[in-house]
Design brief:
By secondary structure, this protein is mainly alpha-helical. The protein is built from 10 helices and no strands. Helix 8 packs antiparallel against helix 9 and helix 9 packs antiparallel against helix 10. The longest helix is centred in the middle third of the chain and has 27 residues. It starts with a helix and ends with a helix.
């Protein structure tokens, strides 16, 4: 366990930077966007808040991208901090659960012809699928195209996705997709 002490310490430090319920209430209670951004500039999230004054939509979009990418970046740093092949493989497998959820969400949505914007809103960058990869997958015309793209990306879920595709439109198809990807 000593080989994971540094990673455990980092997790503890990250937890200390979270806003928590009172911080979230204070953030929401601020009267306008500039004061909310100023509040965030004084928190652990200061690096994510645009420094230069921008229009509201641009500042929010930049902040949202940063907040969505934050867990992925921290997860990758933690993975690098873990010593030993076996603990690292176990943690990597745990982190891939986020990839699996994204793959299932995208394939379900594409099977129901959901627009790419909606699918992007339902997913978040994960260790194996960053924001660009998710956008490319969400823009595919159907689950088969997304499965091919997963294969091109070298995703460990490509085979399971391809295996589940033929029965996706039949009753129980989504359940079989979930089971195959899991």
């Amino acid at each position: 366990m000593a080989r994971c002490d540094f990673a455990a310490g980092r997790i503890g430090a990250l937890r200390g930077g979270l806003l928590g319920p009172s911080g979230l209430r204070e953030l929401v209670a601020r009267p306008d966007l500039p004061s909310r951004l100023e509040f965030l500039r004084q928190s652990a999230y200061r690096e994510l808040v645009p420094a230069a004054p921008r229009d509201g939509a641009g500042a929010l979009a930049e902040l949202e991208r940063g907040l969505l990418d934050l867990p992925r970046g921290e997860s990758l740093r933690l993975l690098g901090d873990i010593e030993g092949r076996r603990p690292r493989r176990l943690f990597a497998a745990f982190l891939r659960l986020g990839d699996a959820e994204n793959v299932k969400t995208l394939l379900r949505g594409l099977s129901r012809s959901q627009p790419a914007e909606r699918l992007r809103a339902l997913t978040a960058p994960s260790v194996g699928l960053d924001g660009d990869a998710l956008a490319r997958l969400a823009a595919q015309p159907d689950p088969a195209a997304a499965s091919r793209l997963l294969s091109e990306m070298g995703s460990p879920f490509a085979g399971a996705a391809a295996e589940a595709l033929p029965g996706l439109s039949r009753p129980g198809g989504l359940l079989r997709l979930d089971a195959a990807v899991d």
